[in-house]
Specification:
Strand 16 and strand 17 form a beta hairpin. The strands form 3 sheets. Strands 1, 3, 13, 14, 15, 16, 17, 18 and 19 form a 9-stranded antiparallel β-sheet that branches. About 25% of the residues lie in helices and about 30% in strands. It is globular, with a radius of gyration of 22 Å. The chain has 10 helices and 19 strands. The chain has about 375 residues and is α+β, with helices and mostly antiparallel strands.
Length: about 375
């Protein structure tokens, strides 16, 4: 069974007004287009060619959700729970209505994510920077009271990063937040910031989108990571992250559990955020495509999903599948053929979906495609 899937872009305010249209070769609508969902999530199941939606076929059992993501401005800073944390939170909030704004846990699953850049530049904030490096960055911001207080808190040892984030988001540090943001904006205009110039410019851009938001200073504590086309990031449970700009393919476990840490008008539950946050600092490894290889596999340490990228130059590529599988076309002219010989041409920005019984799929043409399925 091969099905053709499409979906309408979701119009979140942070979406780009041009990136998805540019990918698909159509005229921009003039409105933000943020995400296209290819899955059976009840919030927006994919449309099946000929009628109906994917959840009517799968019964809502897919363990993953595949997306196109187009960020024109920064997304909220967020973190996702482990399975154990999600299950405990789901039970703890079981008496709350599903649409209660005080609810943090929408299901009992974790939500690890993988993003792979489609644009030539994809900017993100991923993980917390080592404290000693952030202290070096703060040396460029002067000695106003807000900066001095942040420096002292980070230099205090113990669980300094978690405690600093709690202070920034707790509601009593707005004056210091404003001073730190002002110092960042001033430093970003200088020419003597050396290795920190790009990071300061990125945080200044965040501040322009979210003036006065304490999340801007939380962002200052995070690694600024720039992906090139084909490069990816795996975002584990507990890892603070936010996408700033660019177009990418995203795949995640089928969950809607998000704890926010700034850059949003939505509710921020600071105690729960701090409880599930993993404050371990360090760089998040960039997953890079193999030079010259037709197939790049992006390794992830979770069983919920697997993702690979196929660069097609005329020779067909056959892939084994172990469960319900999607082939997303992102460039060129792509055809997917089942083991029974059934073929589907896949327009850029659309998906061919195969059931678990196919065994193998053959992808042919010229261009680029991503193959998504459950992990092994």
């Amino acid at each position: 069974m091969l099905l053709s899937l499409t979906n309408a872009p979701r119009d979140y305010a942070w979406g780009s007004d041009s990136l998805l249209a540019g990918l698909e070769g159509r005229t921009p609508t003039g409105s933000p287009e943020a995400e296209v969902w290819f899955g059976d999530h009840p919030g927006d199941p994919a449309d099946v060619a000929g009628g109906g939606t994917l959840d009517q076929i799968t019964g809502g059992t897919l363990p993953y959700l595949l997306k196109l993501l187009a960020a024109g401005s920064p997304l909220s800073i967020q973190v996702h729970p482990t399975i154990a944390q999600a299950r405990a939170g789901w039970v703890r909030e079981s008496a709350l209505p599903a649409d209660d704004p005080q609810r943090n846990y929408r299901d009992d699953n974790h939500k690890p994510e993988l993003i792979v850049a489609l644009s030539e530049r994809f900017e993100s904030l991923s993980g917390l920077r080592p404290v000693e490096d952030t202290l070096a960055l703060l040396e460029l911001l002067g000695d106003d009271d807000g900066v001095a207080q942040l420096r002292a808190r980070l230099g205090g040892g113990g669980d300094a990063l978690r405690e600093a984030i709690g202070w920034l988001l707790g509601g009593d540090a707005q004056s210091e937040v404003d001073q730190i943001i002002a110092a960042v904006l001033a430093a970003s205009e200088r020419a003597d910031t050396g290795e920190w110039g790009e990071t300061l410019s990125a945080i200044a851009g965040v501040a322009a989108n979210y003036p006065g938001d304490p999340g801007v200073v939380v962002a200052l504590l995070m690694n600024h990571v720039v992906l090139r086309r084909g490069e990816g990031l795996f975002l584990r449970a507990g890892l603070l992250h936010a996408y700033l700009s660019g177009l990418g393919v995203e795949i995640m476990a089928a969950s809607d559990n998000v704890l926010r840490g700034g850059l949003t008008p939505k509710r921020i539950d600071v105690p729960e955020l701090l409880a599930i946050l993993d404050p371990t600092p360090g760089e998040v490894p960039v997953l890079r495509p193999a030079d010259g290889d037709a197939v790049t596999v992006y390794p992830v340490p979770v069983p919920d999903f697997a993702l690979s990228r196929i660069a097609l130059t005329g020779d067909p590529v056959t892939v084994e599948i172990v469960g319900p599988t999607m082939v997303l076309a992102t460039e060129g002219s792509i055809t997917v053929t089942s083991s029974a010989g059934e073929g589907v041409q896949v327009p850029v920005g659309a998906v061919a979906f195969a059931g678990a019984d196919e065994g193998t799929l053959t992808v042919s043409g010229h261009g680029e495609a991503f193959v998504a399925g459950p992990g092994r």
